[in-house]
Design a protein that fits this description.
The chain is of the alpha+beta class and 277 residues long. The protein has helices at residues 2-7, 23-34, 53-59, 63-66, 71-74, 79-90, 140-197, 202-225, 233-241; strands at 39-43, 48-51, 95-105, 110-123, 129-138, 251-253, 274-276. It contains nine helices and seven strands; from the N terminus they run ααββααααβββαααββ.
Length: 277
């Protein structure tokens, strides 16, 4: 960039020919060119732009024409965004900005970028502020990495919460299964106890117990088929009572609010129909 600046026709800019530049302007130019830090500076009434080799990549496709342009022309798409801090630097107050989002058009398409930079006032030989120097760093990749890390953390927390919810549901299911097993065993115990109590013989009791357990299994199948959400009460009652019906008029199920009167193993009595209503 040193050679480009030396041979550039500065007479067509507000800076005038390079041979007429002030000592302060020459000093800033040499300092900028010798730095490895990407930087540029703007000088004079039009804030004419000069930059070093480290800054060239930040200009993208506009780099070949950016040298010698005014600040507002070279960075027209972000000029309004940086104007307040530019005015601050020109008033003699330096400004540092961290991870400033700027939508820049460097290669023909708008792109989201982030910058950390400092605007520092530049003084001429007479001590007056004549421009500002911009030491800058493109931190877009760093910001994007932090975004990705934050998103990964959120995704991980979401997965952990889903796992916790799954564990809670599994615990509820285990408790429910244990509860239903206890209920089932209690019903089986009641069926066996009541049947043995009211049976004439062990053989008769065994036959009745088998029938009643089969009826209970049938009712369980009905509930399982309906996913435990709903089942026709009459269907459940008829299924449960079927093994105990030894006549067409022994049991009648009426309506929709039926209780299984045989659930406790009540012994059928001839001529004594049991009714659910």
């Amino acid at each position: 960039m040193g050679e480009r600046i030396r041979v550039f026709d500065w007479s067509g800019t507000a800076l005038g020919p390079i041979t007429a530049w002030s000592n302060s302007l020459m000093f800033v130019t040499r300092m900028m060119l010798s730095s490895k830090q990407p930087m540029c500076f703007f000088w004079g009434a039009d804030l004419t732009m000069l930059y070093n080799d480290g800054y060239r990549s930040m200009l993208g496709k506009r780099e070949p024409t950016a040298l010698g342009q005014s600040f507002a022309e070279a960075w027209s798409n972000v000029w309004e965004d940086v104007l307040p801090i530019t005015r601050s630097a020109l008033s003699g107050v330096g400004v540092r900005v961290e991870e400033r989002p700027l939508t820049m058009t460097r290669n023909g398409e708008p792109e989201e970028t982030f910058w950390t930079f400092a605007y520092t006032p530049l003084h001429d030989d007479d001590g007056m502020v004549r421009g500002l120097i911009n030491t800058t760093q493109d931190v877009t990749a760093s910001v994007m990495d932090k975004r990705a890390l934050a998103k990964a953390a959120v995704d991980a927390e979401t997965m952990l919460e889903e796992q916790r919810q799954s564990n809670r549901q599994r615990l509820i299911l285990q408790r429910e299964l244990a509860h239903r097993m206890k209920n089932t065993l209690a019903i089986v115990q009641a069926i066996v106890s009541q049947t043995l109590k009211h049976s004439e013989s062990v053989e008769a009791a065994g036959e009745r117990i088998s029938g009643r357990l089969a009826a209970m299994a049938s009712a369980q199948d009905i509930l399982t088929e309906t996913n435990w959400s709903a089942a026709d009460v009459v269907h459940v009652v008829e299924s449960a009572l079927r093994p105990h019906v030894d006549g067409s008029k022994r049991v009648k199920a009426l309506g929709t609010q039926c209780r299984n009167l045989r659930a406790a193993g009540a012994r059928p009595v001839p001529g004594d129909p049991r009714t659910c209503d």
